[in-house]
Structure formats: structure tokens, C-alpha cells
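Notes, p. 3: input format for complexes.
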Amino acid sequence: MQWQWLKQADDYLNSIKTYANTVDLLDVAEMLIIAFLVYYILAWMKTTRSWRMLKGLIVIFLFLAIVYIMEMTTIIRLAQNVLGFAVTALIVVLQPELRQALEQLGQKNFLPSIGFSDSSAKKEDAFSERTVNEITKACAEMGKVKTGALIVIERVESLKDYERTGIEVDAIVSSQLLINIFEHNTPLHDGAVIVRGNRITYATCYLPLSDNLGLSKDLGTRHRAGVGISEATDSLTLIVSEETGGISVAHEGKLERHLNAEELKSKIRQIMKMDGEEDAKGRHRRKGKGKAKGEEQAAE
Ligand SMILES: Nc1ncnc2c1ncn2[C@@H]1O[C@H](COP(=O)(O)OP(=O)(O)OP(=O)(O)O)[C@@H](O)[C@H]1O
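Output follows (300 residues plus adenosine-5'-triphosphate):
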């Protein structure tokens, strides 16, 4: 029995060796191209809502695998009949994302859009503590004087589709600039501002309105637009009410109202997952201080 098992393993190793001998440069190139394509498709999916759909599809495939193993023939037959329609439906549903992907392929700078960019430049442009402070300060000041504002902060899913409806700004986030943009009767005050990393990319952007019937009746279109974009993407939206000066946060389709500056700051940091970063910085600072203290004591 043991000999038979060993012989099988030997046969298997021999077949791998024979196959390995036939692998030429072209096969290696093909494998690299396939690996790149799979990486590109996954990286692209992660920045669109198709990522959530992929998770849904994985659940359906797991369910079908269980059904197949348990030989539930009726469900299998049903699934086989639906499969053809499902592929067509998927292409129709994902049509805007597919169009955007093809357009990106035609652009000169499509490599940075899928993550092949200079990492130091990326670090410089990342959403930082300073950006949190500037945005919080702007919201608090606009709230005090009842200036309406709508600020959408991009997370993983791209907001490029919504930027098309606005006017390019491309400037470092600062409280003064945000206050200036939303100032009444100025050309950029209408619509939403989009923030990517530490930059204000576009202003006057049009956002999809939420049709959530559960939203309070005293909320108008600014708040509906804020909730709408948070339903369509994983972004974080900050809304300052022109009527009350109240600050709200919309994320994952939920609206949190009446936040003060401190609550707003901690909400942004929590959703943008900056708590760990700050903890690490704090630990580093404490460590540095502790070390310096130790050195001082040793010197004494
Ligand atoms: N779809 C949209 N996308 C982006 N901005 C929008 C959209 N709809 C409305 N807005 C912005 O909201 C403003 C109108 O706000 P409205 O008074 O209807 O809303 P609200 O939720 O009651 O807010 P507020 O409490 O500030 O009055 C518009 O001038 C525009 O700047």
C-alpha cells in the first residue's frame, strides 16, 4: 500500500519534471501577462462598486458549490438556465464601470491609476492629520456663520465619475480655501467638493440623490445628495446645513447629525482609519520622550 502511494507521488513528480522541461520563454511571458491582467482587473475592481458585486458573486458561487456537492439537481438545473441571462445582466449593470476602464486604458497615465505609482509621491498626497484638522476647522467655521457645504472624501472606491460633473480645482486642502469655495454667491459654491488624499480635486460636483424614505422630512437636497453618494460609494461625506449650521456625516448610507468639532474630527479619523496611525505616532513620541528622560536621568 505504502509502495503504491510512493509510486504515485513519483509518477506525479516525473510528470511535473516533463512539463517543466517543455516550458519555454513564451510560456513564462504568457504567465506574466495573465498575472498582470488578473492583478489589473482586481485593482480596478477594488476602486469601483464591482468589488462589492464580486463579493456577492463569491457568496453565490459558494452556495452553488455546496448545492453541487450535495447533488441538488433541481437547483443545479435552474442555475444552469439562469447563467446565460446572469452574464448579460452583469455586463449591463457594470456598463459604466466597463466604459470607464476602457477609457482609462486609452489614457497615458493608466499605470498610476492601478497602483503602479511612485510610492513617495503617494505618501505625500495621502490623507493626513493636517487635512483632518483643516476640514474640521472649515466645517466648524462654516457652521458658525451658517454657510452650507458638501464635502465628499474619497476612500477606496473612485469618485472620478462624479468629478466629471464639476470644475477642476486641484489644490491642497486648507480651511480658508474650503470656506472660500462655499461662500454664498461665488461661482464654485453650488454642489459638492471632492477631496482625494490631501487635495481638493473638484468643486460644484453633482451627486446622486438618496431615495431613502427614512430620512427626516426637514432635510433637503444637500443632505439627500450627501447620503446618496454614501450609498453609491464607500466615501465619507460631510454636510454643513445652511439653515441650522449643523454638521452631519454620511457614510454607508447612514446620516449622523448634530456633531460638534471634536466629534467630527474623531468620526473622520475613525472612518478614514487613522486611529492606528495616530496611536503608532503617539507611541513613537512617548518612546522618544521616555528615552530622552532616561538619558537625562542617566546624565544626572
Ligand atoms: N444632487 C446634488 N449634488 C450636489 N449638491 C447638491 C445636490 N442637490 C443639492 N445640492 C446642494 O444643496 C443646495 C440646496 O440645499 P437645500 O437647501 O435644498 O438642502 P438642505 O439639505 O435643506 O440643506 P440646508 O440645511 O443647508 O438648507 C444646492 O444649492 C446645492 O449646492
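Residues 148, 150, 190-192, 206-207, 209, 219-223, 225, 241-243 surround adenosine-5'-triphosphate (CB under 6 Å).
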